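We emphasize that the prediction below concerns an isolated chain of 84 residues; any contacts that depend on oligomerization or on bound cofactors are therefore not represented. The input was used exactly as deposited, without trimming of termini.
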Amino acid sequence: MSKPISASDLSAHNSLDTGLYIAIDGGVYDMTGFVDEHPGGAKILKRVGGKDASKQFWKYHNEGVLRKYQERLKIGTLEEKARL
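Result of the prediction step, given as a token string:
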């Protein structure tokens, strides 16, 4: 079951030192251990760390990519009040 994650918790996890979280369509993903595996390189993940990366994600990926990694990387959902 996904745990609720606040916007402040998401934004606090914005580097490899603090943990690298991103949000995609309300789901929160821990990308810390995936940075070196990301085919597009670490730079883009570091740039969107601690933020909603939905726009950037969907620009380069399809639903299959999200399904492939969701079980491994999804750690929770952005709290409803935290969504903009």
